[in-house]
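STRUCTURE:
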């Protein structure tokens, strides 16, 4: 592998643009090529980000021998297909959250990564935000005692246009896969184990996807995570970790936070502020490049087994709902 890590960007949507901007700030990264379903769109994206090669097909990017790692920024329903195509062509993959539509797809994606012996990671940006790592340090150091409860809310008012991905079931839309995944992943990171029991309610809206929902996860020592998520509701988007000796509030948006406060007896005793996080996307890309340079096939910050567990939890949450994605049907 050359000194610089050569990235390919697969798709030209809003987060691909942000990820490209993050890569542009990293001297050890080079965006070698971009691909879109449309050659003109790829060319426009390439011009904006100073990328030399623009492909009008995803396959052409997968087949480019210069590319080391591909960033997948497509809607959820295409993550498996796009990632497998790149990994079968020998590329490492950073795939946006939610990793797939369901656990069966996640198992398949991970199996292919192992068969091809390539790096694979779910792009769960929260894991790479510096402030979040410091909060985890507080928890591991016992600053709030034993963790008993986790609470997180991620809600927004998304575009209600049926063709947009957010609420379009054909594109894997819905609040659980789009936003609920952050809270589930957050609880998984803090408690560092899968739950024993999972219950969830979801409201299926007129577009046929879950507009909002809530889930309760219960763990083996009685710990509880309380999570809410919505795509047509304005709400606060903060997170809390409650312990026997105090609690931590992570300010909104908890997925890419800039402030966290630790409380004891309801008094603020410590504050963390970080406005230089690069939105976590830079750190996420750096983690991928570190793993590639060290020959790791997965990251300890977002292990594949944990991404799979998170997909299993989401399968359980939505099992009682009247929501079946076409990817669910084998
Ligand atoms: N990490 C984060 O903070 C973050 C934030 C937002 C979203 N995300 C995740 O990133 C992914 C993409 O989200 P986004 O908001 O960037 O979506 P978006 O703006 O709709 O972009 C998705 C892109 O996927 C490609 N695509 C391929 N097949 C498509 C189809 N049938 N319909 C629509 N687009 C299709 C398109 O690129 P081409 O036209 O170039 O082929 C499109 O621009 C999702 O997994 C989402 O959950 C992550």
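SEQUENCE:
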């Amino acid at each position: 592998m050359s000194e610089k890590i050569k990235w390919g960007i697969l798709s030209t949507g809003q987060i691909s643009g942000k990820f490209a901007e993050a890569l542009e700030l990293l001297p050890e990264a080079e965006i070698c090529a971009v691909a879109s379903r449309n050659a003109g769109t790829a060319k426009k994206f390439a011009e904006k980000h100073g990328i030399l090669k623009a492909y009008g097909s995803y396959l052409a990017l997968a087949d480019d021998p210069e590319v080391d790692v591909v960033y997948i920024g497509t809607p959820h329903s295409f993550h498996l297909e796009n990632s497998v195509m790149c990994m079968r062509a020998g590329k490492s993959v950073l795939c946006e959250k939610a990793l797939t539509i369901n656990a069966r797809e996640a198992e398949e994606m991970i199996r292919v990564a192992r068969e091809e012996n390539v790096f694979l990671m779910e792009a769960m940006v929260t894991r790479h935000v510096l402030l979040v790592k410091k909060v985890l340090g507080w928890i591991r150091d016992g600053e709030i005692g034993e963790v008993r409860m986790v609470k997180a809310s991620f809600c927004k008012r998304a575009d209600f246009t049926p063709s947009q991905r957010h609420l379009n079931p054909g594109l894997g839309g819905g609040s659980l896969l789009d936003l609920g995944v952050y809270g589930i992943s957050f609880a998984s990171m803090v408690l560092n184990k899968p739950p024993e029991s999972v219950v969830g309610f979801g409201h299926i809206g007129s577009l046929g996807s879950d507009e909002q929902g809530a889930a309760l996860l219960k763990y083996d020592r009685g710990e509880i995570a309380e999570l809410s998520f919505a795509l047509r509701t304005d709400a606060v988007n903060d997170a809390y970790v409650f312990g026997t000796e105090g609690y931590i509030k992570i300010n909104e948006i908890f997925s890419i936070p800039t402030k966290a406060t630790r409380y004891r007896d309801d008094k603020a005793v410590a504050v963390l502020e970080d406005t230089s996080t690069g939105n976590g996307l830079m750190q996420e890309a750096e983690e991928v490049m570190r793993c590639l340079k060290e020959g790791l096939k997965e990251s300890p910050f977002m292990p594949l087994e944990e991404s799979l567990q998170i997909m299993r939890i989401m399968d359980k949450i939505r099992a009682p709902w009247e929501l079946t994605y076409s990817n669910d049907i084998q």
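REMARK: Residues 11-16, 36-38, 41, 73-76, 78, 96-97, 123, 125, 165, 171, 178 surround NAP (CB under 6 Å).
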